[in-house]
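Morning, I've got a small favour to ask if you have a moment. I'm working through a protein record and want to make sense of it properly. The fold is given in discrete form, as structure tokens running alongside the sequence. Can you walk me through what the tokens say about the fold? Thanks so much in advance, here it is:
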Amino acid sequence: MCIIFFKFDPRPVSKNAYRLILAANRDELYNRPSKAADFWGTNSDILSGLDLECGKEGGSWLGISKRGKLGALTNYMEGRPNPDAQGRGFLVSNYLVDKDLDSYAYLKKVSADGHLYNGFNLITAEFKAKQDIVCYYGNRGSPEPIHLKPAGIYGLSNSLLDTPWKKLLQGKRHFTSVVNNQSLSSEGLVQELLNILNNEELNVPDPVQESQGDGYSKPLMQALSAVCVRSPHYGTRSVLYRLSTVLLCLSPPKASDRAVLGWRITHDREL
């Protein structure tokens, strides 16, 4: 399971505001090989984590590019995935390298082949000098991608966008409070967002989440009810893989030691 909270505000009016604030956890089997976020050896314009699982090498779950693109993926919780389905991680990687399609057109193309994949949600975004665009498509929901409204705050886990799972509602409420607190410094903002991602509180019972959990054991469903998932073999990856991530897209861009055309990338190393 995974979870993403983000605020999309393409023309913020307050000083030192951000066009995008995104906080995300990636949950996965602890023994699944992955590479922490870094510039690709094959393309120095793209920064992302990479899947190293045999047969799925090169897929990703969250990435950005120097051309102002962002792609983010979560899986859709369902009981009996198809073992022969296409790898979903390439949906992010292919978007980041694509130079012909805009974010909506790319999702439109993906939606035509949505039946070839197990359930997923895909966010594609472009941040440019004159216009910022964020789009969403989930292959277990509407057949058409959508443009997300500016100045919106969104939450996405392993159901469709803004599905009211308790952990999503709790995390989104805290996220909203933090990103609307204009007294926070940049460092304070990052720390408060990481605190949200580190929250191991269980949100049970949750009939909405449990309705999607056919085939999942009760102990695992309880573990999955937290923003930060902890179970013996599966959960929020930490320390070595640094997969709790905060992205801040500055407006206007500023120089920083971890900046990529205005992106500030922060990884939590202390989960």
Summary: Helices lie at 90-97, 103-112, 166-179, 186-197, 207-210, 218-223. The radius of gyration is 17 Å. Residues 2-163+233-267 form a domain with the Glutamine Phosphoribosylpyrophosphate, subunit 1, domain 1 fold (CATH 3.60.20).
